[in-house]
Amino acid sequence: MEFIKPNTLKELLEIISTITGEKYYFAGGTDINIQIKKDIIRNGKIIFINHIKELNGIKEDENYILIGSTTTFRQIIESKLLNDKLPFFQKSLNNFASPLIQSQATIGGNIANGSPTADVVPLLLVLDGKLELISNSMNRTINLKDFFTGYKKFILKPDEIIKSIFIPQNAENGFDTFYEKIGSRKALSIAKIAVAGLKKVVNNEINEIKIAVGSLNEYPRRLDLIEDYLLNKDLKDIDFKKIRIILKEEITPITDLRSDKDYRFEVCLNLIKKFLLKPDSG
Ligand SMILES: Cc1cc2nc3c(=O)[nH]c(=O)nc-3n(C[C@H](O)[C@H](O)[C@H](O)COP(=O)(O)OP(=O)(O)OC[C@H]3O[C@@H](n4cnc5c(N)ncnc54)[C@H](O)[C@@H]3O)c2cc1C
After folding, report:
1. Alpha-carbon gap, residue 207 to 215, rounded angstroms
2. CA 245 to ligand 1 centroid distance, Å
3. Which residue in 58, 49, 22 sits closest to 109, CA to CA?
4. How far is the CA of 101 from the centre of ligand 1 (A)?
5. CATH number for the domain including 184?
6. What is the pLDDT of residue 117?
7. Is 110:139 a contact under the CB 8 Å cutoff?
8. pTM of this structure
9. Which domain holds residue 207?
């Protein structure tokens, strides 16, 4: 195993464009350290990126809140800008891991580790988050929902990294918000099921609806079919038996050490129900 510490973003991008074999980025190291310890990662190059200033920090432009990929969850939780502009996003991450992990773990690492349980992903999905990807030869922006292609698989090219995350300025405005993560305990808990939702209800009718789930498929995703069923529906006409049938098509929960698939399915359904029946905060 070889460790590399580039001095600048330019140098980082040049180095990664020349590496053909296995490589990993060490941002906060909270996932990668465990993979090294467990011998899941044995070879390849480990490239430090958490000191590169262009990759860190939270700022805004006219249209977006921009979060650098190596921004830690502590920075997110303490950001005044996020408190003003995206308070739902910020508050939902208060229970991320523990204070120690929050000060190391980064938002880019949470996404690129590719775990179905990554806390930030369902939240970013309902907020219509985008990723800015950068390489030595190009820079492109994609919708986060198009990033994942399978379990720990994404569209990132071998010489690309996540530079930043964009969230539209008005992503939360006027929405009723919902986020619940079910784990084995309150602190330091990896999600067994997570549901994030935004809804706009006018005269009892659902005018806009976004629901995303984590830990229930190979990667967190929006529930497009359920959203289609709910759009423009009067709240009193929602048929939860129908939602149960659609949900069977949309999620494929697994049984593992933490929970079985039937439990995951029922809890997910109950959380969706709780979100839909949650009184309008406006
Ligand atoms: C005790 C403990 C508790 C935890 N609790 C939670 C929790 O509550 N919720 C949760 O979601 N996770 C949790 N985690 C998992 C982990 O902390 C998060 O996934 C974290 O956000 C990973 O970020 P990192 O910076 O440490 O990633 P790293 O370990 O540095 O990297 C992880 C992966 O992402 C890749 N990567 C990193 N940055 C980039 C980039 N900019 N571009 C492309 N690829 C990149 C690396 O190559 C690597 O494969 C926990 C972990 C531990 C050890």
Report:
1. 27
2. 34
3. 49
4. 10
5. 3.30.390.50
6. 92
7. no
8. 0.96
9. 176-277
